[in-house]
Amino acid sequence: MSGCFFILTFVLECDKKAKTIEGGIQMTLRQLIQSVNPNDFQGSALFQQLKEIKPEYGANIRIKVRKDGNTISVTNVHVGSLGDIVASPIDVADGLHLADSELLKAILGEMSNEGFTDADEELFWDDMTDLQKARIIR
């Protein structure tokens, strides 16, 4: 286990509790998915699928999140089956502060390539839930 620690602070924003994720986070994608308000992602088929999928062997692959200028960069979300990715720990760069929903939105955006049509996305994720096809894609 790395020397990073999970830090989650609560701040009041518009009279409601919002979670701010700080650099040094140690949580899995599944834990992040469970921590957000599901109503914020109601229209996301990917969110719904990741919420329901059973975690597998993701501990060896770490999702990396950092800021490059004004862009949030997310890496290591395209390796393995969805069950592997959901079980992957997230490493947020030191000094980076994001709302939990902002972090999840950046990860989902990278996973979905933000340019797929709905039909393309559905075909892609159907392939990724089939372990034999997922091995071929890797």
Features:
138 residues, alpha+beta, 4-stranded mixed β-sheet, 3-stranded antiparallel β-sheet, 6 helices, globular
What does this structure look like?
The chain has 138 residues and is of the alpha+beta class. The chain is 38% helix and 24% strand. The strands form two sheets. Strands 3-6-4-5 form a four-stranded mixed sheet. The chain has a three-stranded antiparallel sheet with strand order 1-2-7. The chain starts with 7 loop residues before the first strand and ends with a helix.
Percentage of residues in strands: 15-25%
Number of strands: 7
Shape: globular
What is the average of the pLDDT values? Answer: 75
- Computed structural class: alpha+beta
Count of runs of 4 or more consecutive helical residues: 6
Order of helices and strands: EEEHHEEHEEHHH
Sheet with the most strands, sense and barrel status: 4 strands, mixed
Which consecutive residue ranges, at least 5 long each, have pLDDT under 50? 1-18
> Main sheet: which strands, in order across?
3-6-4-5
How far is the N terminus from the C terminus? 26 Å
Q: Helical content, roughly? A: 25-40%
Rounded to an integer in angstroms, the radius of gyration calculated over CA atoms is 15 Å
In summary, what is this structure?
This protein has helices at residues 29-35, 45-52, 82-86, 100-112, 118-129, 131-137; strands spanning 8-13, 16-22, 27-28, 63-68, 71-75, 89-92, 97-99. With 138 residues, it is an alpha+beta fold. Strand 1 and strand 2 form a beta hairpin.
Topology readout:
Layout: E1 8-13, E2 16-22, E3 27-28, H1 29-35, H2 45-52, E4 63-68, E5 71-75, H3 82-86, E6 89-92, E7 97-99, H4 100-112, H5 118-129, H6 131-137
